[in-house]
Each structure stands twice: as C-alpha cells, then as structure tokens.
C-alpha cells in the first residue's frame, strides 16, 4: 500500500513484484505490445474505463463494468494500483480517479511516464499471466471525490470554493465557469523529467494565480470531459490538499444545461 497518490520510478521498481501491487499501463494495446511496457505491467486501455452512456455521471463506466474490468485484470479490492501512460500521466490519472470514485482506496500515479521510465529502467514486450478475481462494486463510494452541477452552482453563488479550470488558455478564454481560475494541467508537469514539478514550484504557481496554499480549502476542478482535471487532482492531493473534488460533468454537462459562462476579452 502506498501513502501518497504519487510514487517515483524507484518505488515502482522496488515493488513491482509484490503480489498486492498491480502496475497498470493505460496506453493502447498496440503500444503495450509492440513498443514495450514496464515489466509485470498489465494493460487496461484508457477507453475501457470511459463510457458516455453509463448510468453514472460524466464518463464514469458504471460500477458493475468497472468491477468486472478490475477483476478480469486480477486486481482485488485491497490491492494497490500504480498507473502510467506515455503522456505525462494524464490518462493514467483518470484511471485512479475512477477507482477512487468507486471506493478503491490504494492507488498511485507513476511520477513520470513510460518515456521517462525507459531512461533508467528496463522494459519488456512479454505480458504477465493474469489470474482473474471477483470484484463486486455496487455503486459510487460515499467518499467519491465528485460533485454535481447543483453543488458547483452553489459554490459559485456563495464563493465557498476555489474553481480551477484545467484546460488551455484558448478554451478558457472562449468560455469558463464564473469566477474560475485557469491552471492548465500541463503547468504542473516538468518538461525535462516528464514528471510532476516540485512542491515549491507548484506552490509558487498557485500563489501567482491568486490561489491560497491552504491545504484545507475546498477546490473544485473541471475541464471538458474530466480527463485533464484528473492529473491536477492527483498532484494536489499528493501535496496534501485534502478537500479537492471534481465536477465530473465538467463543461460538457454545464453547457448542455445552458449554464452561465464568462469569457476573457
């Protein structure tokens, strides 16, 4: 079990043979098979845990579907999931947020991605043997870090939360939630290491945008379809921000309901 939502390559290398740790590669199967992957890693492609038509909010896949997905991958309720991709962790982070939403507590993101891993550690094209397990999920967890449109409207009205828009500048300028502050998720990424920037750098960035570094403040994250916000969620939670939640519907849900937006001249 990890004590943070972010683990470095050395930790993964030391624990990838532990029976309770499952390293998950969320890239496309052809990348996993032909380019290679971390030794012992299993493949759960990004599209397999997204579903616009499920009964759950946003693109969550549904409790039954997600339970089957993890069980077929040999992952049990008490196991640790360590996810990675080759895009600075943004697709992998979405798997972790999904797992947390359905009550799977032991999750972590590889700090860096496949390209960063290759610089110092071995890779393989051999797939591990998977022993499926039974994993029943009955619904969203009571602790799911998710808020709905009504909660966002209330937060906008009473100013009790910091709204963070994790999209790029052009998207933000075209239209964003009233009062939202923009921090592109990529701003938390170090271009050289391909991992997360230092805590001091992130705190400086937050301060520069007028955002408090109080670890107990409520922060609501959104983007368009709840992918990019997932990386920001993992980073902030790994730094000790305890009340970070996501607007799962994000701008897709907000605009579908004709919610009010602001533009930047």
Automatic annotation (TrEMBL):
One of its GO terms (molecular function) is thiosulfate-cyanide sulfurtransferase activity. The keyword Lyase does not apply. Residues 17-126, 157-263 form the Rhodanese domain. The keyword Ion transport does not apply. Keywords: Repeat, Transferase. It comes from the Archaea. This is Sulfurtransferase. It comes from Halonotius roseus.
């Amino acid at each position: 079990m990890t004590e943070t939502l972010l683990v470095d390559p050395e930790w993964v290398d030391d624990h990838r043979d532990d029976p309770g740790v499952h390293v998950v590669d969320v890239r496309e199967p052809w990348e996993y098979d032909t380019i290679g992957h971390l030794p012992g890693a299993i493949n759960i492609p990004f599209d397999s845990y997204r579903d616009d038509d499920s009964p759950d909010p946003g693109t969550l896949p549904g409790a039954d579907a997600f339970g089957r997905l993890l069980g077929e991958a040999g992952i049990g309720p008490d196991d640790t999931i360590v996810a990675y991709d080759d895009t600075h962790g943004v697709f992998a982070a979405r798997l972790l947020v999904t797992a947390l939403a359905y009550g799977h507590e032991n999750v972590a993101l590889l700090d860096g991605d496949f390209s960063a891993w290759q610089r110092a550690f071995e890779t393989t094209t051999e797939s591990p043997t998977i022993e499926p397990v039974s994993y029943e999920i009955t619904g969203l967890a009571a602790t799911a870090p998710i808020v709905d449109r009504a909660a966002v409207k209330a937060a906008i009205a009473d100013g009790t939360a910091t709204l963070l828009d994790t999209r790029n500048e052009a998207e933000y300028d075209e239209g964003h939630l009233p009062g939202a502050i923009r921090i592109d998720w990529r701003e938390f990424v170090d271009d050289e290491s391909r991992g997360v920037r230092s805590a001091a750098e992130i705190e400086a960035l937050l301060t520069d945008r007028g955002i408090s570094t109080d670890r107990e403040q409520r922060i609501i994250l959104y983007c368009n379809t709840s992918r990019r916000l997932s990386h920001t969620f993992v980073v902030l939670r790994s730094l000790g921000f305890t009340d970070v939640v996501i607007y799962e519907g994000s701008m897709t849900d907000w605009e579908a309901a004709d919610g009010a937006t602001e533009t930047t001249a």
